[in-house]
Amino acid sequence: MNKEKWLLQEIDQWMAQSMIDAETANALRERYTGKKNSGMLIILFSIIGSLLIGTGIILIMARNWYSFPIFLRTALAFFPLIVSQGFAVYVIRRKRNSAAWCESVAILVTSSVFTAMALVSQIFHISNDYASYILQCGLLSLPMIYLLDASAPLIVYYWTILNWAGLTHSPLNAILLLVLFALGCGYIYLKRKTVNAKLIYMTWISLSAGFVAVMIIGAMLDSSLLLLVLCYFVLLLSVESLPEPVSAAFQSLGTIGSLVTLAILTYQNMWANVYEVVGAGGAVFAGLMLAVALFFVFSNQEIHKLKKLFILALSVLCILRYIWILMELDYDVYPFVFMLISNITLAGCGVGFIVHGTRHIRLQTTNIGMVILCFLITIRFFDSNMDFLWRGVVFLVLGAAFLLVNLRLARIKKQTKDEGVET
Q1: Residues whose CB is less than 8 angstroms from the CB of residue 185 and which lie 6 or more positions away in sequence, other chains included
Q2: Is the pLDDT of residue 397 over 70?
Q3: pLDDT in the model for residue 34
Q4: Closest CA to 277 of 221, 211, 315, 229
Q5: 64 in helix, strand or coil?
């Protein structure tokens, strides 16, 4: 065992025994193994190089493909896959800590899987539709995510299952898509204690793919997309048990997505002309996401009160949306009432951000609250017939308030910092 492997094992043991935290462990790994680990540019070039090599092999074989006998074509179809798997074994045993090797060989194996599946189907005239083909290739590429600790196959895997789900619409396939998506997300759960840039990157990929998956499932179940998306963002907001860098991805996407969805619901037309439906499958799916989110919220005693109130308000709005679609309310007064509730909820979110930011002297949080209020007032201006003069006056007042609040907080922050230095 060389010194590098011994040190990495020691760092893992120190972290397991709570002698050091995850941030310190990552800093030690980067300090003592950073010279051997390639940078992102090298990783990118390695992936591109692997793709070019694979493409070159395919083009060379295609030159005289039909002149080869069947046994030779079959051997050539599996040759890139066998060679790439040989490289994978080498990487696992010799180059486990090299990100460039892991990523490049993982994408090479993945490309070889797609190539072998396509060539075998062509050689033996196996009839197979495109959706089944990409799903099979994606499932065969899935082990590379775990074996080589690589992010490139995860992107390919999500692309395959989402394409398959988009091409095959049925309630049963919606359930299968959830299971397949969970297999991809399992990597994040298994690696949650080893926080690094790759894990954060793969978390963002998974959450983004999850958003698309929810949209596809909603289309499969002929359900309300807006309702399912809002429940998904509420679920992301409720997750706090993960390490801080990973949890930040959940909180960022959940906050931005829920606020954007909430802003859409502030328009009266979103309540006046609702042609969406919620079948049994869509209701179960939305209810499941909402129930899990509320379970996380109430089981976590350390969650901030304002955040808990924000999640509860969004949950109530989800329920109202479901009731609205279920009862098919189309009277003149009801759209205004539900639109008013949405506006009050979004305004309350903005005020909550401002209050939290001013109490804890956080300019970023305060500015988010100010942006929410300014955005709400702006869209209401363009949604009404107010004169341009009064619109200009209100914008001037908002801008002045924005600057005054930031100036006041900056002075308080500076004063607090000076008092701390003097103490």
Answers
A1: 206, 210
A2: no
A3: 47
A4: 221
A5: coil
